[in-house]
Amino acid sequence: MEETWSFISENILPHWPFLVVTLVFTVIGKFTGGKVFTRHRAYRKLSGPWYKPWSNQWFWWWGRETLSLHPIATGILLGFVWQNPEMYAEAWPLAASVGYFSGAGVLSLFAWSFIRSYAKKKGIDITLPGGSDRPGESPPDLIPNSMPDDYDK
Prior knowledge:
Blueprint: H1 2-12, H2 16-36, H3 39-43, H4 57-65, H5 70-81, H6 94-121
Helix pairs in contact: 2-6, 5-6
């Protein structure tokens, strides 16, 4: 146990900003992909004044089509603001902090799939608030029997 804690404190805990940013980007990305930039908003034709971008279809279409770039771009912006994330004595160069947080954005694109599949192996079903399972993912005892009772007779 002592060796495990030593490994965690020396190799994982110094990188807490990377892990926290990855997790935050993952949760925000799942929420915006499912609730904000929905397929319905992106592909239906809306009518409204041209000066309100949120009421025009192109705003939602571009938002949905570029969803995978949002965490990377946000990581780049965060790298400009937070230039020394691991609090070392010497400051990081700008390119290093930008690469650090954009890497967290890239990892956040895959983190939800990893977290969900790991939880599924442990028997835990993860659904964010307001989310739902895909059709056909109900437990076997809740799936209705579509065959008539006298089918085998």
